[in-house]
From TrEMBL:
PANTHER family, per the entry: SODIUM_BILE ACID COTRANSPORTER 7 (PTHR18640:SF5), SOLUTE CARRIER FAMILY 10 MEMBER 7 (PTHR18640)
Name of the protein this chain belongs to: Bile acid:sodium symporter
Gene Ontology cellular component list: plasma membrane
Keywords assigned by UniProt, alphabetized: Membrane, Transmembrane, Transmembrane helix
Regions that span the bilayer: 12-32, 38-55, 67-93, 99-120, 132-157, 169-192, 204-223, 235-253, 274-300
Superkingdom of origin organism: Bacteria
């Protein structure tokens, strides 16, 4: 029973599923969809503004001296993963549709998660300061690298994404973050005291983007294009992708001589992808495309990585307890 409880989807994942179902039954369209898009952009800008206000500059620079660890994480996130994505997207259309293949490429170009990477590193007994630095800098680099990588790999895959969208990402994501950083001396303490507000804006903005994206996809016939077989195939592809990433980062960390704490940080920071950064970016990068199909692999990967890493973190912690005894 306890094993099943560990694998139970978290509340946010259940909200995501509920949002997709709601968009399926009552999708927004026309002027309502346009108004919803504007409100979503405001919510996303507020989210990154609050992140900028909360994140201390010391946290970003504190772990920079551990350059071997950070380079390993960044290589996994922005080099190894994109290669895996390009190889996976090359699967036959009977196994992976072109739209879902584009979603896999996008997923593999995203930065690492911040909150969950740090949380799992802490639970497992890893190098938390290094995790804070790697995950935070990965998130910042992703604002620039993800659009460039997506544009490059989508061109190689036969896609047609414009790099002009980088400007939109900078204006909607990076500028609010920088403004938050600049105002941190005055509002930083307030932002730290109101962590729940960040959580509400964090999850709320993602749900808003998901509802808008899937509404548009449903209006354009998403569920006529997506069969149960293709969904099952997508789940299997995500499981294999995560398994390969976890195995490779573990092997690389040990091969390069990192200690146990650093290995844990590399595994959790180098194998995970950010839903928080990914959904808003998809909404900008793939404007005019079926964004619902693009973010579907990311949503599935998000839940799979949370369940798998929760079990893995407890396993690391149990091993440490047994070694101490």
């Amino acid at each position: 029973m306890s094993a099943l409880a560990r694998l139970r989807p978290d509340n946010f994942t259940l909200l995501l599923v509920g949002t997709v179902l709601f968009a399926t039954v009552l999708p927004c369209s026309g002027q309502i969809a346009e108004d919803w898009k504007v409100a979503t952009e405001v919510a996303v800008a507020l989210l990154f503004f609050l992140h900028g206000a909360r994140l201390s500059r010391e946290a970003v620079f504190a772990g920079l001296t551990h350059w071997r660890l950070h380079l390993t994480v960044f290589a996994s996130t922005f080099v190894y993963f994109p290669i895996l994505g390009l190889l996976t997207a090359a699967l036959p259309a009977s196994m992976l549709s072109p739209a879902l293949g584009a979603g896999i490429i996008f997923l593999c170009c995203l930065p690492s998660t911040v909150q969950s990477s740090i949380a799992f590193t802490s639970i497992a007994g890893g190098n938390v300061p290094a995790a804070i630095c790697s995950a935070s800098v990965s998130s910042l680099l992703g604002v620039f690298l993800t659009p460039l990588l997506v544009g490059l790999l989508m061109s190689a895959h036969g896609g047609d994404i414009s790099l002009d969208s980088i400007e939109s990402i900078i204006m909607q994501l990076l500028v609010p973050f920088v403004v938050g950083q600049l105002l941190r001396p005055w509002i930083g303490a307030w932002a730290l005291r109101h962590k729940k507000l960040l959580g509400v804006v964090d999850r709320g903005s993602i749900l808003m983007v998901v509802y808008g994206a899937f509404s548009e996809a449903v209006v354009n016939g998403l569920w006529h294009q997506l069969t149960p077989e293709s969904t099952a195939g997508m789940v299997i592809v995500n499981i294999v992708l995560l398994g390969v990433a976890l195995t490779t980062t573990t092997w690389a960390a040990r091969r390069m001589g990192f200690n146990r704490e650093d290995e844990i940080t590399i595994v959790f920071c180098g194998s995970k992808k950010s839903l928080v950064a990914g959904v808003p970016m998809a909404n900008i990068l793939f404007a005019g495309h079926s964004v619902g199909m693009i973010v579907l692999p990311l949503m599935l990967f998000h839940q799979i990585q949370l369940m798998t890493c929760a079990v893995l973190a407890r396993r690391y912690a149990k091993q440490a307890e047994q070694a101490a005894e």
